[in-house]
Design goal:
The protein has about 350 residues and is an alpha/beta fold. The strands form two sheets. Strands 1, 2, 3, 4, 5, 6, 7, 10, 11 and 12 form a ten-stranded mixed beta sheet that branches. It has a two-stranded antiparallel ribbon with strand order 8-9.
Length: about 350
């Protein structure tokens, strides 16, 4: 059922990491200025680029409580999130992409969820959007980046897609192979339990985040939200998907300086490494399921970039796993070939 109607009292912190996005972040700031619920601060984690972002932020400080925190490099975004979490003052800490435009009730919906339900995190909906005559409008190509077009009612019967024990009733769950799977039953009728969110639109109680810190050796934002969701779950905090906490996500070209093939290779490499990151702490994970899952992906997506990501991710991950068992200090990211970053 839709949330609403309770007294709002919690103070919020909105964390936005940005780099070379002055032409986009202004739409996010405009939308924050128009929020129905205004009891929040905005922490902008900025990597200077001389594109006018600093001037823009100075202008919006007239309308919003903005604090700017500087960092030297744009990636990984998890370092920016760590900086934001360490400096936030809010009871609720929300994460918003610099190209995501929240609807007027966005902050209100996040806060209402915590007021009415005993949760540690809220995943909001993300709607693809385009810029047309300086106006952000929903894209006709898709209704949501989170809710599947054909909701799945049952768990995938393949053994490597079975949920970790305790997540059987979750609409988005972590599998024994370390992947996220979804079976969202509805799009707009009710909140649902999920194990992960999308970084463009998620929030957490400050209490739930007190014991969490992203590792410093993470590649660009792939699978990191799943680590955060797993941490909350294992520490007794549930996460809820609230479809009424919506943002419009502006579609535009990549600014990470990587080709589509390189992006895909990094994506599949980090997805594999995520399993090995978590394996020492989550004993319900299965190496056999991990390898079966990788083989199934290789058969269904026989692209060179995907195959390279699967190969390097699992090879370095297995070596990492063995190194951990014998007390070694192997770092898989330092051993990945430069071609993943430069040539793909």
């Amino acid at each position: 059922m839709p949330l609403g109607g309770s007294t709002l009292s919690k103070y919020g912190s909105v964390i936005i990491a940005t780099y070379k996005r002055a032409h986009l972040i202004k739409y996010a700031l405009d939308a924050l200025r128009k929020q129905v619920y205004q009891n929040f601060e905005v922490l902008v984690i900025l990597c200077p680029s001389n594109d006018g972002t600093e001037r823009l932020l100075s202008e919006y400080q007239k309308y919003l409580s903005i604090r700017v925190l500087l960092r030297k490099k744009p990636l990984p975004v998890t370092d920016a999130w760590n900086l934001g979490m360490a400096n936030s003052r809010g009871d609720i800490i929300a994460f918003l992409d610099d190209d995501a435009v929240p609807e007027p009730q966005w902050m209100e919906q996040h806060i209402q969820t915590y007021n009415q339900l005993d949760v540690g995190g809220v995943a909001g909906d993300v709607i693809p959007a385009v810029l047309f005559n300086n106006t952000v409008i929903p894209s006709k190509s898709s209704s949501s980046e989170i809710v599947p077009k054909k909701p799945k009612l049952e768990i995938d019967p393949k053994p490597w897609n079975s949920p970790l024990p305790g997540l059987e009733e979750y609409s988005i769950y972590l599998t024994k192979s370390g992947h996220l799977h979804d079976r969202l039953v509805t799009t707009k009728k009710s909140v649902q339990k999920v194990i992960s969110a999308v970084g463009a639109n998620m929030s957490f109680s400050g209490k739930a985040l007190k014991t969490f810190h992203f590792p410093s050796d993470w590649m660009p934002a792939y699978a990191c939200e799943a680590l955060l969701g797993w941490h909350l779950w294992r520490n007794g905090h549930s996460m809820i998907f609230n479809p009424d906490a919506r943002v419009l996500h502006i579609e535009h070209g990549s600014t990470l300086g990587r080709s589509e093939g390189r992006q895909k290779a990094l994506l599949y490499t980090e997805y594999q490494l995520f399993f090995y990151r978590l394996y020492n702490y989550e004993r319900s994970l299965s190496v056999i399921c991990k390898l079966l899952s990788a083989a199934a992906i290789a058969v269904s997506l026989p692209e060179i970039s995907v195959l390279r990501g699967l190969f390097y991710g699992n090879l370095r991950g297995l070596i990492w796993l063995f190194s951990n068992k014998v007390g070694g200090s192997y770092n898989p990211l330092r051993r990945l070939p430069s071609s993943l970053y430069e040539k793909l």
